[in-house]
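Worked example 3 (structure in, sequence out).
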């Protein structure tokens, strides 16, 4: 099968390309390297050193003996998208090329607009490009479990049965995203679903949980490593905790730390995307996969990180800075995830062993973490600068917003730069 990966230079696009090539698929990638630029914009870099893309292609040739075809350009450029699709005519497109940081989208109006305009434009260009150049191709679109928010009910896979005033229907499950970034994914989902209905395209919308890990079986050489972000804007909570432990800083679950999310190992995420590709939906079908293995609270991640850190002679403490986000710090969380299991997916990696593996890698690259140790703690706030009057008017018993309570100085042991 010929697969086009948009965002092939990214954290998950790169190992997916390696995995599909190793399975004998033909892989074409595109990217505009904007994640590399935006990570630099916030003063950070990947803890793992990432070669330039041409060097990555050479490494693929030398290590895997495979060719990875590449097109440099942005999905926001319609002519570029149309050219790539009409030249390559892929059997499937895995769409990963979006601005994927919630904090980045919350920095200010410009970052919010950039996130939504780019993400929606890229998806619409792909949908129109598929319609024009290869309408039979299968679009695997990367959404996020964050589209659903944290409702006080179980979360189905995309759709659920509703009965209202005596009438029944099978409808999209309500979305309650928690950032401008997550809302861009919600709007994308609507657009993809609509395109399958009006044009008969086939699509899998993957509600992906948070991915963890830095290795897959194909990454047998440092030149094939994927990126590992650890700063407040681009790093996941788990990535930041492991980096903090390596740097001798306290681990910092925000607020009460009871926020729960679904997680999946990088290797298993590759497995499930491959299963989706190798079992395409029918023309006109829009299906949704909730892609995660287990839900963990932020406290559980911090405690597990601290436990594994001790095996490496590190002894991190755990602090709880105020939560910069507007989110429920304690809530019910029970999403379903049966669709991939029905197609043969099975979990192969446990969180603890992967965390151990990440420690091995990060300790090798400790100096790269040291050089950017000032980027780990949160600075981006979800709330208005002074939201107390607004909150008090809406909720007379609302507590003062954390931004008001934020300590003048960072927690003990925090970087001072
Ligand atoms: N990593 C996770 O834990 C996670 C969880 C849920 C959903 N997702 C989603 O999965 C997808 C991939 O995530 P990732 O972690 O690999 O992100 P990433 O930022 O590392 O990779 C995305 C790649 O796409 C490229 N890109 C972005 N916009 C582009 C554009 N307009 N044109 C061309 N290239 C562009 C970037 O340069 C980058 O190389 C994203 O859509 C993200 O929202 C990721």
């Amino acid at each position: 099968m010929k697969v086009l990966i948009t965002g092939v230079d990214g954290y998950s696009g790169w190992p997916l390309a390696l995995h599909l090539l190793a399975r004998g698929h033909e892989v074409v990638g595109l990217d505009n390297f904007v994640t590399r630029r935006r990570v630099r914009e916030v003063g950070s870099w990947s803890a793992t050193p990432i070669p330039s893309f041409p060097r990555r292609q050479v490494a693929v040739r030398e290590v895997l003996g495979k060719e990875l075809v590449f097109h440099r350009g942005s999905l926001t450029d319609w002519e570029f998208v149309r050219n790539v699709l009409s030249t390559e005519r892929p059997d499937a497109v895995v769409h990963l090329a979006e601005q994927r940081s919630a904090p980045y989208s919350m920095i200010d109006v410009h970052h919010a607009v950039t996130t939504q305009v780019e993400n929606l434009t890229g998806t619409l260009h792909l949908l129109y490009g598929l319609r024009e150049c290869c309408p039979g191709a299968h679009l695997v679109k990367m959404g996020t479990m964050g589209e659903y928010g944290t409702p006080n009910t179980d979360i189905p896979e995309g759709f659920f049965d509703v009965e209202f005033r005596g009438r029944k229907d099978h409808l999209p499950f309500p979305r309650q995203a928690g950032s401008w970034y997550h809302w861009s994914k919600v709007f994308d989902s609507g657009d993809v679903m609509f395109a399958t209905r009006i044009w008969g395209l086939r699509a899998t919308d993957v509600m992906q949980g948070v991915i963890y890990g830095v290795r897959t079986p194909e990454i047998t050489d440092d030149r094939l490593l994927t990126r590992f972000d650890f700063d407040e804007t681009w790093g996941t909570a788990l990535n930041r905790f492991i980096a903090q432990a390596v740097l001798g800083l306290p681990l910092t679950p925000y607020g009460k730390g009871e926020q729960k999310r679904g997680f999946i190992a990088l290797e298993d995420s590759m497995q499930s995307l491959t299963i989706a590709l190798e079992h395409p939906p029918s023309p006109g079908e829009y299906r949704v996969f909730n892609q995660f293995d287990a839900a963990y609270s932020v406290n559980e991640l911090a405690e597990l990180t601290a436990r594994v850190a001790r095996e490496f002679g590190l002894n991190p403490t755990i602090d709880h800075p105020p939560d910069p986000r507007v989110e429920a710090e304690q809530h019910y969380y029970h999403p379903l995830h049966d669709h991939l299991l029905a197609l043969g997916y099975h979990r192969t990696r446990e969180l603890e062993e992967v965390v151990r593996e990440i420690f091995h890698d990060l300790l090798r690259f400790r100096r790269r973490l040291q050089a950017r140790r000032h980027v780990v703690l949160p600075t981006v706030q979800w709330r208005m600068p002074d939201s107390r009057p607004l909150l008090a008017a809406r909720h007379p018993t609302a507590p003062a917003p954390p931004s008001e309570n934020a300590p003048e100085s960072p927690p003990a042991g925090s970087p001072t730069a």
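Notes: The domain at 2-236+261-294 is CATH 3.40.50.720 (Rossmann fold). The two ends are 50 Å apart (CA to CA).
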